[in-house]
Amino acid sequence: MNHFLEILKAILYGIVEGITEWLPISSTGHLILIEDYLPFAFSSNPAFKDEFWEMFQVVIQLGAILAVVVLFWGKLWPFSRKKTPEQRRTVLRLWGKVVVASIPAAFAGIVLDEVLEALTQKDIDGWLYNSLVVAVALIVYGVAFIAIERLNRNKVPRVNGIEQLSFKTALAIGAFQALSIVPGTSRSGSTILGSMLMGVSRTAAAEFSFFMAIPVMLGASGIKVLGFFSWIGETGTAIPAMAWLTLLVGCAVSFAVSMLAIRFLMDFVKKHSFAPFGVYRIALGVLVLVLWLARG
């Protein structure tokens, strides 16, 4: 029965990740909040549970990445025989923009994290991954979404397709993506907000955000996996079979749900603004803040 409950938790985490990774409402923030009340309990070793959870909440995103690759394979793969030489060059330029846009997040996630840990003996996760930070970030970005939508209400986007993005604009969007190092901000939310501030249409902003996720998530997952196994090697801790099973289930569910969530968002932004997500963020942020205060 205990194993069944752990699998149910993994399914829940996968559903939440698959939905919230692509909608601008913060996947990490939601996972942190759920983990506060439904942590994994397949190990009695607190240190192992902490290390595994830190890795799990990032690696579960691999399922979400796979959904992007499957859905947008035609746009992402430059070497298809069906493509003309110019179409192949266009896809390669797109990948170049994605790489450029990933530089700020890589710097924030690797360099700043190591500097902070060296100075304070705590990394970014140790300082920021808590309910209070998540609540504040949810509210601040919720207000930002509503404000920017009102600001852009009568404006015509100057960039309507990702092929129109310049490398300079891609780098600027990447700087906004780096802000998502704070849990509760939302990686997709940060990049979409940044894109819209620079005159990019909602559809193009959402699509480019999907593509930017691929190198960022792969890199973050690789770092977390290496860190986890480094800790395992140093401590000699055994990895329970349930750990592998929950990770596999979480990734599989995340993939399946992401396929639906991505399609939903692309259809939604063609007809609606992001303001409803802003309202949701504010409401959730206030609820989290109240619960945090109640817990003392």
What this model shows, in words?
The chain has 296 residues and is mainly α. The protein has one domain (2-295). Helix content is 78%, strand content 0%. It is built from 13 helices and no strands. The chain has helices at residues 2-20, 27-37, 46-59, 61-71, 73-76, 85-120, 124-128, 131-151, 167-178, 187-197, 202-235, 241-271, 275-295. α4 (61-71) runs antiparallel to α11.
Keywords:
mainly alpha; 13 helices; 0% strand
Summarize the structure.
The protein is 78% helix and 0% strand.
Set out the fold topology.
Blueprint: H1 2-20, H2 27-37, H3 46-59, H4 61-71, H5 73-76, H6 85-120, H7 124-128, H8 131-151, H9 167-178, H10 187-197, H11 202-235, H12 241-271, H13 275-295
Helix pairs in contact: 1-2, 1-12, 2-8, 3-11, 4-11, 4-12, 6-9, 6-11, 8-10, 8-13, 9-10, 10-11, 11-12
Query: C-alpha Rg, in Å?
Result: 19 Å
Structural domain count: 1
Number of helices: 13
Biggest β-sheet description? none
The whole-number mean of residue pLDDT values reads 92
